[in-house]
Every structure is written in C-alpha cells, then in structure tokens.
Amino acid sequence: MNTPSSGYEYGQLYRSEDKIYPREIRGRFATLRRLAMFVLLGIFYGGPWLSWGDRQAILFDLPARKFYVFGLTMWPQDFVYLALLLIIMAVSLFFFTALAGRLWCGYACPQTVWTEAFTWIERLVEGDRNKRIKLDRGPWDFNRVWRKSLKQFIWIVLALFTGFSFVGYFVPVRELAVSLATFTASPWQWFWTLFYGFATYGNAGFMREQVCKYMCPYARFQGAMFDRHSLIITYDDRRGEPRGARRRGTAPAEVGLGDCVDCRMCVQVCPTGIDIREGLQYECIACAACIDACDQIMDKMNYPRGLIRYSTETMLQNEPYRLLRPRTLVYTALLTLLLATLASSMIVSQPVILDVIRDRNTLYRDVGRRGIENNYTLRVVNKRNVAREYELSVRGIDGIEIGTATRFSVPAESVFTLPTAVTAPHENALGGQTIEFVLRSADDSGIMVVEESRFRGPSEVN
C-alpha cells in the first residue's frame, strides 16, 4: 500500500460524469438525423402491425420454430441464411466505416435513435439548453416538479411501448395487446416487455452518451477500420488556428487569428460533450451536429463554411482522395461474394425438407423371401403456405423397395412424419451400403430433394 510519503497520491477509482445538455441545432445534418430517427422508429413500431394474408407479416415464432418475413417462411434448417445475413451486416459496417467513418453510430444505431427521441421529448417539456440547466439548478418548486413529472411519464410510456413492440415481433402483437390489457399475459411476456422497456428507459433517458463512451465496443476498435482516405468529421486547424473572438465581419488576417472564433458552439451541440477541435476521438459518434453549428457561425461571420467538415487526412494535406484502395476493394469483393451466395442459395433452395432417421436399435431384419429389411423414420417439412402432395422412392440397391405408401399429402407449413420399412434382396443387401431417398412433388416436377442414408445387411449370405 502506498503512503503519502511515497510520492503517490490517492485518486478516485470512479468519478461521476457531469450531465451533458446538448444544444438544439438546425441544419442539413440535423434534418437528416431527425429524418432517420422518424423513419427507423416508424419501421420498428409499425413492423409488428403489418399483415401478410391471414398472419402477421414479421413474426419470429419461437415455440413453433418458424420465422415469418412477409411471404418468406424460414425454418431452423434455414439458419444458414440468418448466419449469412449477419455476416453481410458486419462486413457492411466495416465497409461503410472505411468509407465514411461512424455513419452507423451517428444515424442508425438504436442507442442514437432512441436517445435522440428521448432528448427531443426533454426539450419539448423542459425547454432549450439554458432553460434545462436553470431548471436543474433551481429549487424543487411547482414548475420543476410538474415538468420533471411530465417528462418522466412520457419517457416511461415510450419505453413501455418500445418493450411491447419488441415482444410483438415474437408474439402475435394483437394477441399480446389484448393479453397485456386484460392482465392475462404469461409471466415471460410481462418480463420481457418490462425488461426491454426498462433497458430503453435507462439507456436512452439516463445513460445516453455513457453507453457510447464506456459500454460500446465499436468505439474501441473503429480506429482499426480507418485509413488516411476515410471520410471523418475533422476540424481544419490550419485554417482555424489561432482561435480568438473578434467582431462580426472582421477579416481573420487583420487581427492575426484563424477562422475559429472560439465560440464553443461545436462543444455545446455535441451529444457526447467532446471538443472536435482536439482531433479525432473515440467518443465522437459522427452525428455531424458540430458541422451544422460551425457552418451557422461561419455564415454569421461572413466566412466560408467547412471549418469543421467531413474530410480525410489526405484531403486536409491537399492530397487527392482515393475511393478505390485495397481496403475498400477487399470489402466490396467480400460483400459481392456474400450477397451472391445468399441470393443463389435462396433461389435454388427447395420448398421442402426431407430428414431421414435410421432405426439404430435394430441393424436389420431378415424377412424371409422378401429379403433384408431396415426401418427408417422420415420427416417431411412443407415450407410453403399451401398443402402439397409428394411421391417417395428409394434407390441405390437393385431390387430395393419401400414397404409403405409412396404418395402422401403434407399440410401447409407443417411437418409430416412417416415411419417406413425398406427391403432389399438377400444377395444385394450385404454389408453396409449407401441408399438415397428421393422425394418429388406430385404437382411440380421442379421440386425434388434427395437424402442419403445407410442400408445395413449381413456380412455374407447364409
């Protein structure tokens, strides 16, 4: 343990962050950010209420192990499509980060979108930045109590509606609404609705920028995806320095200053409270609020815009911008390959799945003149939303036959289980051989699946 005499001082292991009061700003990037917020929230909240035929358009029915996405029904065997989609999303994130920095964080990240919504509600109820600061520093009078109470009430309603909407993607939303309203919902439905509501309330209402600064891993490794040609939000220090106040319209050269008037508007509008003039920082979420703020100040001073702007390290040094470079070419090639793989696999995928399970309790049975018999259980999954008739055959051994009905109907979006026995002549059923079960649609010759299995027999003829 260090003592005061050892030259070390005791420090705090944790320091509470000061509350950030971002100033509202208007401009092209602010408009784009709000538009993204309304569009994305509209998709999220409206998605569960869309219908497709007689069912919910988007529904992840976990108990039935079916995922409905408009006209597409996905089964557990289609997990490869979900894996490919997640890989495509990850590579896309890397690709767009290499091109233009943290666009995801600034415009589409759920943390950013819901924080923007909660902050908008806070401004609507408590007022602009100065009014909010004055309100928080003032006494708990009637004005402060009713404004804080109203804000919390709206926050809680929005958070609970968010939790309800999220669960509505996994439980039919109309049934969920009725069961919650009548208090007949299951304990798990209540739990997840309240859990995600509380998570939204805490992350967007209170933690806000601390999630981006301390909890999000993307902020830590974003630097590995940047290069000298990546578009990022930058402050042109060669143009802006030295900083200093001056009268409106004063030419910077007349007072020996740069274009930056040191108004700190870029800091006041930043949702994470950083100073972009200190260079690229991992706390920056690329919302571009500082660009809108600086452009307004430049307009008032009759200076050209762009002191803070989207730029690259090479462009700041008057070097040409290169869009095509090894990093972007590799990402483009990967995305093209993954998208082509996903599209081709979905195009050629059959609307039926055949699983063959061999009876492992009995290797084989000698059924006399009929030959050697093996037992199997077949599971046929009809992925379409209409019933279909199928024909079953088996091949691989001369004289092999199926002992059950070879034509049957499978209801729409259901699993049909068919126990069957397969026999082969004694002289052709020696040892273990590979056979193939062939399933064809009776009304569509283009639908056919083949599944291999093993046929067991004696090692030699008696």
What structural keywords apply?
elongated; 16 helices; five-stranded antiparallel sheet; single chain; 2 domains; 462 residues; four-stranded antiparallel sheet; disordered N terminus; Immunoglobulin-like
Structural summary, described in words:
There is one protein chain. The chain is of the alpha+beta class and 462 residues long. Helices cover 41% and strands 19% of the residues. Strand 15 (432-441) and strand 16 form a beta hairpin. Helix 1 crosses helix 4 and helix 2 (79-100) packs antiparallel against helix 16. The radius of gyration is 32 Å and the shape is elongated. It starts with 27 loop residues before the first helix and ends in a 6-residue tail after the last strand. Mean pLDDT is 88; it is low at 1-10.
User: Radius of gyration in whole Å, from Cα?
Assistant: 32 Å
Tell me, briefly, the overall form.
elongated
SS content category: alpha+beta
Q: List low-pLDDT spans.
A: 1-10
Secondary structure: helix percent: 40-55%
- Note the beta-strand portion: 15-25%
Total count of domains: 2
- Total number of strands: 16
Main sheet properties? 5 strands, antiparallel
Arithmetic mean of pLDDT: 88
Individual helix count: 16
What is the distance, rounded to the nearest whole angstrom, between the alpha carbons of the first and last residues?
A: 86 Å
